[in-house]
Amino acid sequence: MKLKSLFKSPYFYFIMLVPLGFLLLAAARFIPGFADGYYNVVYRNLGGIFGSITGIFPFSLMEAGICSLVVLVFVWLVKLVLKGKEDTETVLRYFKSVLMKMISIACAVFFLFCVFSGTNYYREGFAEKNGLETKKSSVTELYELCEHLLNEATESGSKLYRGEDNLTVFDEKNFSMAREAKAEFEKFAGNYDFMKMGFGKFGTPKPVFFSEVMSYLLISGVYSPYTFEANVCTSGPDFLRGATMMHEQCHLRGFMNEAEANFMAYLACINSDSEYFRYSGNCFALLYSMNALYSADYELWYKLRVQYPEYISADMASQNEYVSAHDTKVAEVSDKVNDTYLKLNDQQDGVRSYGKMVDLLLAYRRSL
What we know:
Helix content: 55-70%
Number of domains: 2
């Protein structure tokens, strides 16, 4: 009798989604070719359709969903407090109901993550698909990379509009930037058959309304596998936002490794027809590469650093000030959570995997 009641309970089926999700991840991780096959058959089709639909909305559905969930949990808690005036049995029954609903939501969220994103962590990477081989590089190679990026950033940056304190200003609203980022990324993705996905407004980055909250988590952007959206924080300096928009669109195309998404964002930017996006991409890569050079050889780093034109120095200083102002305990917790998330999804370097971008940049330079 109890077994029949169990099968009749909707909570049972929500809980069973968890082992199904783990089974899907296990297949992606341990069965050769499964993750790429799943991407081509399931993710590209479902993601392309749903992402094209959610892309029609000019606001972040992910953000709206989070707000709705917070309101829902608050309502449940208020009702629980009000139930406290009733007898103990009623309170416990309602508490159990709320708890099961929350567990069910968590199970559904985990399962949908597995279906719409989790398997992509085990796909063949962009570098592998394009024959880019990363290896140890000399300091001279690193210096030459930094020098090249500085020259490119200097050229494109000299043609941009600048505002107060010589800072780069994208002279349109964020939605205008998002539409341009989508168009420029489509040109880049069109060069690779394995990146073609969706139609219409698919992938258009969405500025987040509560960007100030994201800024105190030091999160510049986030890909939502539940709504197939590339969400971007609008706080902080303008000069890197273009590269961030490209980065999140890479995740949307199923490339989850952070270093590869950074590298792909750089490629999308430098192949753009827009001076702004070329500047954003080169500064983005320059930031990572110069940090690596600083650790490898301070004198060479300084030799290039003093060559920065005033506008690049101003933009870089504004980024440092922004990070410093928002580098709080909350940001530390956010960083640790992100680090754990990456490691759980087989990115063993965790947050430090961002350093691999420099190796990819060097490999790309060698391939030219």
